Task: inverse folding
């Protein structure tokens, strides 16, 4: 299943609800373009809701890292919400779990930007 | 009598992302037929996908003239997947450690690490031209077909 991305605003935070797979050829490019679009519009608070992302490969991991560093370099903050077990396992395995700010519930994630 | 789930499948595929999906699906089927549990199957399939992506993208560089040759086998004790490309070759020792602090924020270089994490054995062989990677996952006693 390819990646679908829906955007919504909540208390000054742009939440991207992701659903599907973040992999080479399926979700990586969509995610990159969505993040670049937000940053080009001056959005500073970006939260990726990963609750429906059931698969990520090394390309997808690379894309998450690129999104994180691009946001940081532009003075924006990119955080992750609601990792599925499989995605969490892969992030822990690759030590990327320590790189990102990760939240289990949306209210705490939104509050963290204040 | 042949053990359930055992057997061998060989594929000669073009260098496209559709081929990656086909290899991934074949690996998923191989693991499911071997009775592998869901978590192990997830890792096995991911490792195979990473090898397939390497062959199509880094090895053959999407070149339609170059093939990806795949062999998937369940010998009753292990699942063995070999994926060979026709590219310029790969030295896995030159891939930086993706877990080193200075490499954590690199956008690439995690594929081989994931293969090694999820498989029991990973072997690279120069195949002139190209690289053949062989991935081996031993079946747990409960999943061994006997």
Result:
């Amino acid at each position: 299943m390819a990646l679908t991305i829906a955007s919504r605003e909540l208390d000054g935070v742009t939440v991207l609800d992701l659903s599907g797979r973040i992999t080479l050829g399926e979700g990586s490019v969509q995610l990159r373009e969505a993040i670049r679009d937000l940053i080009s519009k001056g959005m500073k608070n970006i939260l990726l809701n990963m609750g429906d992302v059931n698969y990520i490969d090394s390309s997808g991991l690379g894309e998450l890292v690129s999104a994180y560093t691009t946001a940081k370099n532009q003075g924006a903050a990119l955080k992750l919400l609601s990792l599925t077990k499989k995605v969490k396992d892969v992030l822990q395995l690759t030590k990327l779990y320590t790189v990102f700010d990760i939240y289990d519930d949306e209210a705490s994630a939104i509050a963290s930007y204040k | 009598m042949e053990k359930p789930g055992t057997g061998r499948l060989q594929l000669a595929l073009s260098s496209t992302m559709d081929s990656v999906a086909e290899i991934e699906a074949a690996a998923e089927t191989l693991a499911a037929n071997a009775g592998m549990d869901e978590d192990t199957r997830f890792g096995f399939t991911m490792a195979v996908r990473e090898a397939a992506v390497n062959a199509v993208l880094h090895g053959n560089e999407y070149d339609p003239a170059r093939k990806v040759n795949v062999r998937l086998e369940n010998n009753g004790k292990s699942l063995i997947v070999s994926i060979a490309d026709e590219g310029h070759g790969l030295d896995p020792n030159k891939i930086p450690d993706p877990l080193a602090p200075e490499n954590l924020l690199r956008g690439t270089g995690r594929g081989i690490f994931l293969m090694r994490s999820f498989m029991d054995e990973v072997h690279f062989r120069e195949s002139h031209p190209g690289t053949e990677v062989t991935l081996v996952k031993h079946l747990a006693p409960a999943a061994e077909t006997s």
